[in-house]
Design brief:
The complex is a heterotrimer of chains A (322), B (300) and C (327).
Chain A (H helix, E strand, L loop, with lengths): L5 E14 L4 E16 L4 E5 L6 H8 L7 E6 L2 E2 L6 H9 E4 L13 H12 L4 H14 L16 H13 L5 E5 L7 H18 L2 E5 L3 H7 L2 E6 L2 E7 H6 L4 H9 L48 E4 L2 E4 L6
Parallel strand pairs in A: 3-8, 3-9, 6-7, 7-8
Antiparallel strand pairs in A: 1-2, 1-4, 4-5, 9-10, 10-12, 11-12
Chain B lengths: L4 H10 L16 H15 L1 H4 L37 H37 L1 H16 L2 H12 L3 H27 L3 H8 L4 H37 L11 H9 L8 H33 L2
Chain C lengths: L5 E11 L6 E12 L4 E5 L6 H8 L7 E10 L2 E2 L5 H7 L4 E4 L3 H4 L6 H13 L3 H14 L5 H4 L9 H13 L5 E5 L7 H18 L2 E6 L2 H7 L2 E6 L2 E7 H6 L4 H9 L38 H5 L5 E2 L5 E2 L10
Parallel strand pairs in C: 3-8, 3-9, 6-7, 7-8
Antiparallel strand pairs in C: 1-2, 1-4, 4-5, 9-10, 10-12, 11-12
Helix pairs in contact in C: 4-5, 4-7, 5-7, 7-8
Classes of the chains: A alpha/beta (322), B mainly alpha (300), C alpha/beta (327).
Chain lengths: 322, 300, 327
């Protein structure tokens, strides 16, 4: 199948802030404000950004845990807004998730085998022998022994639990897996194991990932495309090497320059941003980044820049095209 | 009560406990209270075998016999007789049946109903939550014992009536506590992932929420056991509980009350002591359970 | 002053379970030293003992823990031998500590000013008004905008980055000699983290502090530290100058760790992962604790725990591969 497996166009998510006895809407949190992206089959879209940028909300919308307030989301060409009931369940089978905390992602009272096959038995009626077969295959895929199926989550370490979570996410052979900080809660020496596993699975099964993490190096390592978000907007999006090696948007530049070095001799031109991230309740007018931007122009405070192509990626900044 | 580590250690050196029962060795396990409850339950089950006399029929000529170790007592009636000549020991033994049955049944029924409503209310939220909670609030505002007396006066005496009435009064405590737990469990990642997997709301409540609140329900039930037994004893004492000649401990207290001034202490102290023993043991066990389960629950 | 500011020799801290049946060697025979103005990074994963080491330093261990052996010389005198009232004068005043979660470190019921002024008032007996003035100056020193207003606000009114700076202000309020930072930036965003680390470095220079970073993040060590000590299962497996260790790690664990971390600008090749997981500190493997995961394991490693060997005059490694005959 040609074309992206998941597509978002002008996605918007606003949360109303209600006060008072009658819950009147007094303000709106613009968590995600008009973003567009697409994920190709077998590829990884990495999303980076700091608190309040909207990446978690975006993940929730992709997982249909939140309904978009506006915009279109398409899965394999089909408009998701039109989904209800049966087709929503069909969508759920194709999009699964792995979350950050391996200690909270598994029901402590269920055996690992049941946890892994739960999506399978919920959505398909298969003979138990077939279910068992698939369970063993999934355990094998993530590198866990057969006897793990009968144990409870608390008998496993953090890294092993994350493998269980990944096995579960794979049980329905989904097309897209949303990975929300999949390794940040794991010990450093284990992270490489899990990242390698995720890569191998992608190569083997052709599954796409939406990879969200604050570790820029990990995102750059795993992703084919990187999207940089700030206050609900995508400020830069393009192929991973291009965005990571030569970022164009001032925020992206500051972000990558702030990343910790991997060697003491690695020197980066540190761009230290002034101030803090403004509240999504009242984002600045014009370009949302302009109050903190070291290169702000007069028009940045009144005119919102559009995402335009520049050197092989899209940037939303009045500095470009030069 | 001596449910201490010292006792646990002596038990564990004598018995090699299978791993399921290993918790008995844990710190502070209330061994004696648990044994007392176990004993009371066994007595209740084996009552017809254990009781030396018929608890409901007495020989009038034999009234007010004191316990065997006092002057005037006989070994035929080890704990004496009451105002109708009935054997106190036999009545205590059969009375345990009523306490055990009523106690267990009430906490099971109230627990089941209350937990179910708590889960539904907590998980579904919105208007369902509002309705159930307002009903619970209204119900809780009524004083439990008074409500029980009122209902008993309407419905009439009888064991099954008592059970229904007490359960109807007590379910609200469960609903509240369980709902609170559900509100926090609902936000856990594994519940979100169940939604992502396509599970229906009912499946989530059954497979994910319920098993994770059952510990709280059990702790609550054990702590409530004492209250329920006292309530049943109170109702029987007031004459609106178990009807005579059934040997409920509360009823024995009521009957024995008249004899206090005359010095017939065994007619009140003994049934009162049984009530106290059972309630205290249940409370100690419940307390230990609460402490034991709490840290695990926080880890959820 | 002659000699190191902090000299820890063969320190061991054990946790004993309630019944006395299980002993966890949280810190096992650790030796390290810190000079004035230096920055030391203590690196380790969960179960490595790094936090226990920090708590031992400040003698803030829970009741189940016991300092079993060794000495901790601070400015020449052994902290282990000091009575509690003397330790209280040292904590906060001469040795300060910053913890990971600023929300947990700050009392939500007291104003920022009250909390920053507290150590000043406790240790120096300063009256409230002048302590508040000092607090405002401290907020300026940690680069909080409009400190005069902020000083009267409550923690919940501030952002995460600002709260962590407040915590920093509290820590330096009495001009300590050593500042221990236990994972101070884990909860912070990337750009805020950069600001904060730069702040710590500037504070170090202006106040002539010695800094100890306790972290699992090798990036912080690369950026901030002069010296590094790597801990694994309670033991210090490698120590030395940061550049030397990053260029030529002697211990297989250090090397494997450095190789397993994704690097910005690498060719997105497969990472070199370490098999297995960090051991349970209460039941470490016999011999060298790393042996089940070590790519260079030898028979000896399985039964004999290696002592510390000198690799160069500044670098030590606890590995049989670093034994003089082997090299």
């Amino acid at each position: 199948m040609a074309g992206p497996v998941l597509e978002a166009k002008n996605l918007v998510k606003h949360f109303p802030v209600k006060r008072g006895l009658l819950s009147r809407e007094v303000a709106v949190v613009r968590a995600v404000d008009d973003i567009s992206f697409s994920i190709d089959p077998g590829k990884t879209l990495g999303v980076v950004g700091e608190s309040g940028c909207g990446k978690t909300t975006t993940a929730k919308m992709v997982l249909m845990l939140e309904r978009p307030t506006g915009g279109i989301m398409r899965f394999e060409g089909q408009d998701l807004q039109a989904l209800d009931g049966g087709s929503l369940r069909a969508y759920r089978r194709s999009v699964q998730a792995v979350f950050q905390d391996p200690y909270a992602s598994l029901n402590p009272r269920m055996r690992v085998g049941s946890i892994i096959v739960e999506p399978l038995v919920t959505n398909e009626s298969l003979a138990s022998a077939e279910v068992r077969k698939r369970l063993l295959r999934l355990l094998d895929l993530v590198g866990l022994p057969e006897r793990a199926a009968d144990l409870f989550p608390h008998e496993f370490s953090g890294g092993q639990r994350q493998r269980i979570a990944i096995a579960r996410a794979l049980s329905l052979s989904p097309k897209v897996i949303v990975l929300d900080e999949p390794v940040s809660a794991l010990d450093v020496s284990i992270r490489a194991q899990i990242l390698n596993l995720l890569r191998d699975l992608q190569a083997q099964l052709g599954v796409s990932y939406l990879f969200i993490a604050h570790d820029l190096a990990a995102v750059a390592h795993m992703s084919h495309t990187i999207a940089v978000m700030y206050l609900g907007k995508i400020v830069e999006i393009g192929p991973a090497e291009i965005v990571a090696k030569s970022p164009k948007h001032p925020y992206t530049q500051a972000l990558f320059s702030a990343a910790l070095p991997s060697h003491p001799d690695e020197r980066r031109d540190e761009i230290i941003l002034a101030g803090e991230v403004p509240s999504p309740l009242a984002p600045p007018a014009g370009c949302r980044f302009h109050p903190r931007c070291p290169h702000a122009l007069p028009r940045c405070s009144s005119e919102e820049p559009k995402l335009l192509s520049e050197s092989g990626r899209l940037v939303a900044c009045h500095l470009y095209p030069k | 009560m001596n449910g201490t580590a010292a006792n646990s250690r002596s038990v564990s050196t004598v018995l090699a406990l299978p791993s399921r029962l290993a918790f008995i060795r844990s710190e502070g396990f209330p061994l004696i209270p648990s044994l007392i409850l176990l004993m009371i339950t066994l007595v209740a089950i084996l009552a017809p075998v254990l009781a030396p006399h018929n608890p409901e029929v007495g020989v009038l000529g034999d009234r007010f016999r004191p316990p065997a170790w006092q002057t005037g007592g006989t070994t035929d009636h080890l704990l004496g007789t009451d105002h109708l000549g009935r054997d106190v020991l036999s009545r205590l033994i059969f009375g345990s049946r009523i306490s055990v049955v009523v106690g267990l049944m009430v906490i099971i029924v109230a627990g089941a109903v209350g937990t179910a409503l708590g889960i539904i209310s907590g998980y579904l939220g919105r208007w369902v939550d509002q309705v159930i909670m307002r009903v619970t609030d209204a119900w809780l505002a009524l004083p439990a014992l008074m409500l029980a007396i009122f209902l008993a006066a309407i419905v009439g005496p009888g064991i099954s009536n008592i059970i229904i009435i007490l359960a109807a009064v007590w379910w609200t405590r469960y609903a509240r506590v369980i709902r609170g737990e559900v509100l926090s469990i609902r936000e856990r990642d594994f519940v979100r992932l169940a939604v992502v997997a396509g599970c229906s709301k009912w499946k989530i409540m059954r497979m994910h929420i319920l098993p994770n609140v059952i510990n709280s329900a059990i702790v609550l039930a054990t702590l409530q056991l004492g209250q329920v037994i006292i309530a049943e004893a109170g109702l029987s004492f007031l004459g609106v509980g178990v009807p005579p000649p059934l040997p409920a401990w509360g009823l024995m207290l009521a009957d024995g009350k008249k004899g206090l001034m005359a010095g017939y202490w065994w007619l009140t102290v003994l049934p009162g002591g049984c009530i106290m023993l059972m309630v205290l043991s249940a409370n100690l066990l419940g307390d230990w359970l609460r402490v034991k389960f709490d840290p695990q629950l926080r880890q959820l | 002053m002659t000699g190191p500011l902090l000299d820890i020799r063969r320190l061991s801290t054990h946790y004993v379970s309630a019944r006395g049946t299980r002993v966890t060697r949280a810190v096992d025979d650790v030796t390290l030293s810190l000079d004035q103005g230096q920055t030391l990074g203590i690196v380790g994963e969960s179960g490595s003992g790094k936090t226990t080491l920090a708590l031992t330093l400040l003698r803030m261990l829970p009741p189940a823990a016991r300092i079993v052996s060794g000495e901790m010389l601070f400015e020449g005198s052994d902290l282990i031998k000091k009575p509690e009232n003397e330790m209280r004068r040292i904590r906060g005043k001469r040795i300060a500590m910053i913890l990971q979660d600023p929300m947990m470190s700050l009392n939500p019921l007291f104003t920022v000013g009250d909390q920053v002024a507290e150590p000043i008032r406790v240790h120096e007996g300063t009256p409230r008004r002048s302590a508040w003035k000092r607090a405002t100056e401290l907020l300026k020193a940690v680069r909080i905008a409009a400190p005069e207003t902020r000083v009267g606000e409550y923690p919940h009114q501030l952002s995460g980055g600002m709260r962590q700076r407040i915590v920093g202000a509290i820590a330096i309020s009495c001009e300590p000699r050593i500042l221990i930072a236990d994972e101070p930036t884990t909860s912070l965003d990337v750009t805020i983290q950069a600001q904060y680390l730069n702040l710590l470095r500037d504070l170090q220079r202006s106040h002539n502090l010695a800094l100890i970073f306790i972290t699992h993040n090798l990036g912080i060590v690369a950026k901030m530290c002069d010296q590094v000590a790597v801990m694994y299962a309670g033991r210090m497996v490698e120590a030395g100058p940061v550049k030397q260790i990053y260029n030529a790690p002697a211990h297989p664990y250090t090397r494997a760790l450095l190789e397993s971390i994704p690097r910005l600008g690498d060719n997105r090749q497969r990472l070199t992962a370490i098999d297995g997981q960090p051991p349970d500190p209460s039941a470490p493997p016999p011999g060298c604790a790393f042996h089940p995961r070590c790519p260079k394991v030898m028979d000896r490693c399985r039964s004999e725990a290696p002592p510390e060997f000198r690799v160069t005059d500044t670098q030590t490694s606890r590995c049989w591969l670093s034994a003089p005959a082997a090299r």
